[in-house]
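Recall the central idea of this unit: under ordinary conditions, the amino acid sequence of a chain determines the structure it adopts. In this exercise we apply that idea directly, starting from the sequence alone.
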Amino acid sequence: MTVEEHLWFYSRIKGIPNELREQIVEKSILEMNLTEHRTKPSGTLSGGNKRKLSVAIATLGNPPIILLDEPSAGMDPEARRFMWTVVERISQRDKKSAVILTTHSMEEAEALSTKMGIMVRGGIFRCFGSSQHIKNKYGTGYEIQLKIRKTNFKDLDDIVALCNFQQDLSEQVNLVNAIAKAKAANFDQIILEEIKDEGLGTDLAAEALANNGNVMLESLVQYLFIQQNGIRIIDKLARIFSSVEMLEQCADFYKIKVPRGSVTIGYLFGMLEDQKI
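Accordingly, the structure predicted from this sequence is:
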């Protein structure tokens, strides 16, 4: 059976009146972005489109309760976000159906759920409540995601003056000589040592390798600004928490984990707000 035939078949099983079936089937196909697949046999669809069809069948007729078992499993990020939008619309915007879904993804659960339960071995409920309630009661710490603000000309000019770089930002500098000047200006040693292959400054190292040891001064100063301010935040957190774990860093994006202890999430937000840089 094709996608369209499946939806017509289940609309009859669910008792949708004849005069409404065509309208409802068309709406389901459009909402699930299945228009170009409507005449294809369901067995030939990709895994993601099969899940879209299954969700379309489950939601036909706005049943009071909808059960979804890992609706976005196996999907690429774009298709997963699309599926989340569909589930959110059904459960929160339309408010015609209650949705119960299972997932292994905490990110998906937080994005879609007003209440969450964690099960062990498929049947034992360990906890139930809102996302924040569960984190407060059972979480071992806070996971902080932050981004260093965009630089302006003054930010870059201050570093140029501090390190006594003689070139304009639009000019190239020898990377080895520039690092030596930054060291002489007492710039953080850790930041400078990371300008290497597989270090935080790997892009600069690659640029120098491809340009006879030279890099654009603006690229170097941007790197120094981001890393300098990232270290300031980490240093501030280290003064408050017993440990600070760097989970991920990509350019100006940081993901950091700290233990909860006696620090409330409100205090943490306030501290980060005061430290905006």
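Strands lie at 65-69, 98-102, 116-120, 124-129, 141-147, 172-174, 214-216, 245-250, 253-259.
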